[in-house]
Amino acid sequence: MVLFLVGLHALLGEAGGMLFVWVFIELLNPTASRLGRAWIVALWGVILLFLSWLVGGFYYVEFYGSQVKPVIKGGPMPWAHSVVIETKEHVFLLLPFLALAAYSLISHQKLLLVDDKKMRTAVLVLVGLVVAITFLMAGMGFLVSSGFRSALETMSL
Amino acid sequence: MKNIRALIISTNSVIWLVVVATLAGEISKIFKSLLTALTGHHWVSKSLLSLVLFVVIYLAASRGKKGSEVKPGAVYSLVVSAALGAAVIFVFFLWHFWA
Question: How many contacts does A have with B, using Cβ atoms within 8 A?
Answer without folding.
Answer: 94
